[in-house]
Design brief:
By secondary structure, the chain is of the alpha/beta class. Helices cover 25% and strands 20% of the residues. It has 2 domains: 290 residues, Inosine-uridine Nucleoside N-ribohydrolase, Chain A; 102 residues, Immunoglobulins (Immunoglobulin-like), CATH 2.60.40.10. A hairpin with a 6-residue loop joins strand 17 and strand 18.
């Protein structure tokens, strides 16, 4: 029966696949205000082979109002330069240190809107415009780890000096993810540039923000991979100069990292679709309700939004846990729900990935672990009718180190329009699964995730997403 279903499946509609390109990224960082910016920069440099870093700009924030610290960026780059030859053993696409040094720029040493307006240009704001005007069709991501006034000044100047059509064209290329609001220019940007693609948990109530799940202790799960002992063992000590510059946690581990995690090409996220979810969390486009009681202690203005933004979304999630006998995984007995779930559900995977890349700084290719490569034998987009059975198959997946592979298939209800959980009709940890499409009254989409994990040290995971369109009978 399964062979017949597979033959039928191959005749279904298939969306054309496109070659994957590196995402362009400029970072705005108030490095020096908190050790976590340095932590996030260490991790980012280990993904410089897969993300096209176009700028590293030192800025201010509400926590660092009158100075910028580009020298702290250069300290981390100096450590990167020492491990770069070893990283090349693992991927020749790691950029040379001198290129990254040339991308270090400065914003104005002024807080928020005090640094925006006529005559307020800076090396950083001019660099954003320069990169934005390059003949490159790819979007330009701005990852904001502190205040956003350097971007605000770039937008101000574009609006003042370009035609309306040219300004619209340039702004359409921007994609912004800010770690909450860390100065008063964020809300100004959102009000004055209503078409700008903008991801944020607005305001300064950091504890409720999606991004804070990267370092939140979650009761009921294993939190080992964010523990200080895990960080010391896997990141800081015995991993060369880059690990040695990774500072101890002071206020929270790597609060800025979620702003670029969804750019990692792991097969799970599509940055153009924040609502699909990924390592950096999941976000939906809507006008959030203003809650004057949702306040932090930074003093950044908390104001109602004037237009829809990409912001916090809710997942309901029951983890899979190892099973010692029989089927190797089972669903846990506890279910979690909330916006932070959209990020921490992937946390062990991206922490293990970080640890493996730290190994790349000191180990040879043969000694280190590398991610598996999922391969679908069936299309990534298919169309089926209500009640129709179909097969999803990952035969052909492999591991570059020759490691044994584990498979897990699951429906991600919140990523599609069909929100009821669709169970597999076979073991979800097999290479292929059989699923029966539910009855629908109108066209619906359902997202199925394949997670392939190797048994190396540390274990590494990569994904494939299959989007199934279900049409009524």
């Amino acid at each position: 029966m399964h062979a017949l279903v597979l033959l039928l499946l191959l005749a279904l509609q298939v969306a054309p696949t496109q070659a994957q390109e590196k995402h362009r990224l400029i970072v705005l960082t108030d490095i020096g205000a908190d050790p976590d910016d340095t932590q996030s920069l260490v991790r980012l440099l280990l993904y410089a082979n897969e993300i096209d870093i176009k700028g590293l700009i030192a800025t201010t924030s509400v926590w660092k109002k009158t100075s910028v610290s580009p020298e702290l960026i250069r300290e981390v780059l100096t450590a990167y330069a020492k491990v770069w030859p070893n990283l090349l053993q693992h991927d020749p696409n790691y950029p040379p240190p001198e290129l990254l040094f040339s991308l270090v720029k400065e914003g104005r040493p002024e807080y928020g809107m005090q640094g925006v307006g006529e005559g307020k240009d800076s090396e950083g704001s001019e660099w954003i415009i320069k990169v934005l005007e390059e003949e490159d069709p790819r979007p330009l991501w701005i990852s904001v780890w502190g205040g956003v006034n350097t971007l605000a000044q770039a937008l101000y100047k574009i609006r003042q000096t370009r035609s309306e059509a040219e300004a619209k064209r340039l702004i359409a290329k921007l994609r912004v993810y800010t770690i909450s609001d860390q100065d008063d220019s964020g809300i100004w940007i959102r009000k004055n540039f209503p078409d700008l693609f903008y991801i944020v948990s607005p305001g300064d109530d950091y504890g409720s923000a999606t991004w804070s799940a990267i370092n939140s202790y979650i009761p009921g799960i294993d939190n080992t991979t964010i523990s200080n002992s895990w960080i010391a063992r896997n990141i800081q000590q015995g991993h060369g100069p880059l690990g040695a510059v990774y500072p101890d946690v002071a206020y929270g581990m790597e609060g800025d990292t979620p702003s670029w995690l969804n750019l990692v090409p792991n097969g799970l996220s599509d940055p153009e679709h924040p609502e699909w979810g990924g390592w950096g969390g999941r976000y939906e486009l809507y006008l959030p309700e203003f809650d004057p009681k949702r306040r932090g202690n930074s003093g950044v203005p908390h104001e109602p939004e004037t237009r829809p933004i990409w912001t916090d979304a809710v997942d309901t999630y029951t983890p899979y846990v190892p099973s010692e006998y029989g089927r190797t995984v089972r669903r846990d007995t506890v279910t979690f729900s909330g916006n932070k779930v959209t990020l921490w559900r992937w946390r062990d995977d991206f922490q293990n990935d970080f640890a493996a890349r730290m190994d790349w700084c000191v180990l040879s290719y043969e000694e280190a672990n590398h991610p598996p490569v999922p391969v679908l034998s069936t299309p990534e987009r298919i169309t089926v009718r209500s009640g129709q059975g179909f097969v999803l198959d990952a035969t052909g997946s492999y591991d570059p180190d020759g490691d044994n592979l584990s498979y897990l298939w699951f429906h991600y209800p919140e990523a599609g329009t069909y929100r009821k959980l669709i169970e597999t009709n076979s073991a979800e940890n097999a290479r292929g699964v059989y699923i029966i499409a539910p009855e629908v009254e109108r066209e619906e989409t359902a997202h199925f995730i394949l997670r392939v994990t190797d048994k190396g040290n540390p274990p590494l995971s990569r994904y494939k997403r299959v989007i199934v369109t279900i049409i009524p009978k």
